């Protein structure tokens, strides 16, 4: 009598997707978190647990406003564990709230995971989330309505760490004040984000990043007014391109393969994504389905990795955060047709400006600058290049305003680019419907 062969991974994926798509989508979110956790375990957590815990503690207690690379601060294993754990927790919260998994779910969870490699950690994200929850209770509305604002709102979490570990108060008072400030900010984020969306008309995908940029600017101005020094910080690790490229290429190649497999082993329907400008709110999971969305996420992930390596830059916390964010928003507005012109515009600026092509300034602007990709999607390649070129200059000059408290610095800059550029496009094209 023949034994039944265990299901292969492709067969399991196909059967799960066909029988219960919601379970499949939730599993795919967990997949990213577990991939990072497992990588962390084999990268040192299992073999050197004491050093791993020390590294995790350093990540928590180090002021982590821009630019703070957790790979350099705590080591590879602690950085990836911090990222993977937050992705798992934030995915699980969606399950607890019985949220349907959409493109916005992928964008928010992967963005949290990406920035958990350089700024967000298991200590500083919770006050923001608590503040948003309290806002929903105050409004007597469901938390489901605001949960993604809470997720993206953790962009301002370095403000919590800065107060908790830098401000000259007693230990207990610093922690209490840091959490109260974080809760206060989180409480007003939903209202602020909703209002600021009207300024850039949805052409900046990181709308909460734009909001947090303004909040961070107010916070930094207040602290400076009372003599609190906020030193410039740049922690940037090097020398891990080989191991990180292997891990990331396997990860995103598998995502692409999964989408291709579930799409009937074809690329059918992928070009349909290009019909969408990507302007908020463009949810590819809802509009085009999970398989095509996974293909798009995988391809943009791989292209982002190749870009970092081609510019002779470094794969580290910040750049991997950029790659994860690009891949996440590949489910919520970004695709090849609207991303590549923006990257081209940033690259052209990089060749001509005062920074080296592979410098942190330029490579991060290229990755995160795709926040303005809807401009390319709506108005074409030329305006996409212009947007990328303008964004490159803008993003390198707005960080001082919020002192790095807003991790989504490119979201802040992208909002300003859209606010300036859209009226110009409107005037040239004589369009009143923008």
Uncertain segments are: none
User: Count of DSSP helices?
Assistant: 21
Report the strand count: 0
Mean pLDDT: 94
Secondary structural class = mainly alpha
Strands, helices and their partners?
Blueprint: H1 9-19, H2 21-45, H3 49-61, H4 70-74, H5 76-96, H6 103-115, H7 126-139, H8 147-153, H9 157-165, H10 171-200, H11 207-225, H12 241-262, H13 284-288, H14 290-310, H15 317-329, H16 336-352, H17 360-368, H18 373-379, H19 381-395, H20 399-402, H21 409-429
Helix pairs in contact: 1-2, 2-5, 3-5, 5-6, 6-15, 7-8, 7-10, 9-10, 10-11, 11-21, 12-14, 14-15, 15-17, 16-17, 16-18, 16-19, 17-19, 18-19, 19-21
Characterise the protein shown here:
The protein has 434 residues and is an all-alpha fold. The protein has helices at residues 9-19, 21-45, 49-61, 70-74, 76-96, 103-115, 126-139, 147-153, 157-165, 171-200, 207-225, 241-262, 284-288, 290-310, 317-329, 336-352, 360-368, 373-379, 381-395, 399-402, 409-429.
Short description:
The chain is an all-alpha fold and 434 residues long. The chain has a domain of 204 residues.
Key words describing this protein structure:
single chain; 434 residues; mainly alpha; 21 helices
